Amino acid sequence: MAVGTGEQVKLLGAWASPYVARVKLALHLKGVSYEYMEEDLTNKSERLLRSNPVNKKVPVLIHGGKPICESQVIVQYIDEAFASVGPTLLPADPHERAVARFWATYVDDKVLLPWGMLLRAKTDEERAEWTRQTLAAVDVLEEGVRECSKRKVFFGGDDVGYLDVLLGGMVPWVYATKKISGHNFLDASKAPLLAAWMERFAELDGTKAVFQDVDSLVEYVGTVLYGTTVSN
């Protein structure tokens, strides 16, 4: 049951997905208990197809029998639906909230997209191009960190906020990518603010409870990822 409500909360997900990890992070930070239901994305269940008939992807949050889709939307929903418990994730100021949403979209469209394509790349030329795009996007994101954090500990200020959760879902994949390709896209020499943020975020008790095992992610890339759509 969810803290502060009598309505059941379920999460349809895939263990390796950074997008599913976002939702788990938000639920954990808010103190909302839930039932997790692993989906086989090579043989999608009727439950998933019924809950997300448009995109047919995870994550899907089901609250009181009603499905909510897309990780960014779900995290915002969790913040609003469980406003009475746990920390507030989205900024109260409308402009700061808009800025956080802007950078969240940037992370998905400009950072995670080429990053994911890099892990799927089958030729040196493809890997070089997707690496170039990811590095360029991280450079821009580094400046976004400077703007959003205002030199505080997290994007949300002194406490974890919406953008921390959205970006935080990819932290285990930073370490996995380094093992797979040798690239550390959040290296301190190239992105010092992001690197420092990642170290702080990874040490939080809440993140340790959610993050995937890095070696398992590396194995996943080698045996499962190629040719398979993960999630969004």
TrEMBL record:
It is found in: Cytoplasm, Cytosol. Residues 7-86 form the GST N-terminal domain. Pfam families: GST_C_2, GST_N. InterPro entries: Glutathione-S-Trfase_C-like, Glutathione-S-Trfase_C_sf, Glutathione_S-Trfase, Glutathione_S-Trfase_N, GST_C_Tau, Omega/Tau-like, Thioredoxin-like_sf. Residues 93-224 form the GST C-terminal domain. Gene3D superfamilies: 1.20.1050.10, Glutaredoxin (3.40.30.10). One of its GO terms (molecular function) is glutathione transferase activity. GO terms for biological process: glutathione metabolic process. PANTHER family: GLUTATHIONE S-TRANSFERASE, GLUTATHIONE S-TRANSFERASE, GST, SUPERFAMILY, GST DOMAIN CONTAINING. Is involved in the conjugation of reduced glutathione to a wide number of exogenous and endogenous hydrophobic electrophiles. This is Glutathione S-transferase.
